[in-house]
């Protein structure tokens, strides 16, 4: 039986006994394609990732010239939501923009 036994001491973990870990972080990436306009990529970066015009333009040029651009570093759930939002907006606007996430 799992009841209380007299004389049995209970132990509690103190806060210092519990190991806490930072959540894993994920990079959200935009990939170059031959159809999505540079202007649309800048709009995505500003609206979904809250980038300034200057930062959005810099990242867009990386996507265009290098083939990939880092949009930011987020926890899994936030990164996943941003990837889904980019895909939804791209689809609504008729662009095949690819957005992925990778663990840091």
Tell me about this structure:
There is one protein chain. The protein is an alpha+beta fold. The protein is built from 3 helices and 3 strands; from the N terminus they run βααβαβ. It has helices at 38-48, 53-66, 76-92; strands spanning 25-31, 68-75, 98-103. The longest helix has 17 residues, at 76-92. The chain is elongated. The N and C termini lie far apart (48 Å). The model has no long low-confidence stretch (mean pLDDT 91).
Structural class: alpha+beta
Which spans of ≥5 residues are poorly predicted at pLDDT below 50?
none
Number of helices: 3
Q: How far is the first residue's CA from the last residue's CA?
A: 48 Å
What's the helix-strand series?
A: EHHEHE
- Mean pLDDT over the residues: 91
Could you estimate the helical fraction of the residues in percent?
40-55%
Rg is 22 Å
Tally of strands: 3
Taking strands numbered 1, 2, ... along the chain, how are they ordered across the largest sheet? 2-1-3
* Major sheet size, sense and barrel closure: 3 strands, antiparallel
What's this entry about, in short?
The chain has helices at 38-48, 53-66, 76-92; strands at 25-31, 68-75, 98-103. By secondary structure, it is an alpha+beta fold.
